[in-house]
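Lab manual, section 2.4: Encoding a predicted structure.

Procedure: take the sequence of the chain (186 residues), apply the prediction step described in section 2.3, and record the output as C-alpha cells. A sample record is shown.
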Amino acid sequence: MDSELKKANDTLVHSGLILYPTDTVWGIGCDATNPKAVSKIYALKKREESKALICLVKDLNMLKSYVKHIPDRVIEILKNTTKPTSIIYNNPVGIAQNLIAPDNTLAIRVVNHEFCNKLLQTFNKPIVSTSANISGKPTPKSFKEIHPDILKGVDYVVNLPDEKTEAKPSSILKVEHDGSITVIRE
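Recorded output:
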C-alpha cells in the first residue's frame, strides 16, 4: 500500500486526477483546493460545473480548517455515525471555488477507510470524491464496471482493484443556516 499512497499523493500534488477506492464507491479524486484539477474532473465526467461534488477529509480537525462553523450536533453525529455520512456545510473556506455549489455550500465527508485516511494524512488537504462514472450514467458497483473513458482520463489508477467498497452512496445531511439539520438522503 505504501507505493500506492506515494504514487497517488504525487499525482495529487501535481494537479492530477486519481481513481481510488473510498468508503462508498470507486471515486475520481483531486486536490479539492486546486480549481484547475477540479475542472479536469468536471470535464472527465462531462458534468456541469454548477453541479457540486463531495470532498473528503481525514478527521474533525481537518474539517474545522475548511468550514467556518460546525454545530455541536453535527460533531456528535460525526463521532457516532456508523455509516458513511456526507454533510453539506454553509460557507466553506479554502476550497476551490468551482467545487462549491452556487448557494455557497459544500458536501464534506470525514472518511473512515484505511487507504483514504492514509492518503489524506500524507496529502494533508481535502480530496474530491465523486463516483467514477460519466454524468447521467449509473455509478459502477465494482472496479470492473468503470467506463474505459474514466480509466483513460485519470492520471493514476490506485492499484487496489480487489478493494471492496460498499458500492452505495453515503447518507447526506444538510446544515441549515439556523444550525438545524435536514436529511437529504438516508
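Check your result against the sample. Residues 143 and 162 are 8 Å apart (CA to CA).
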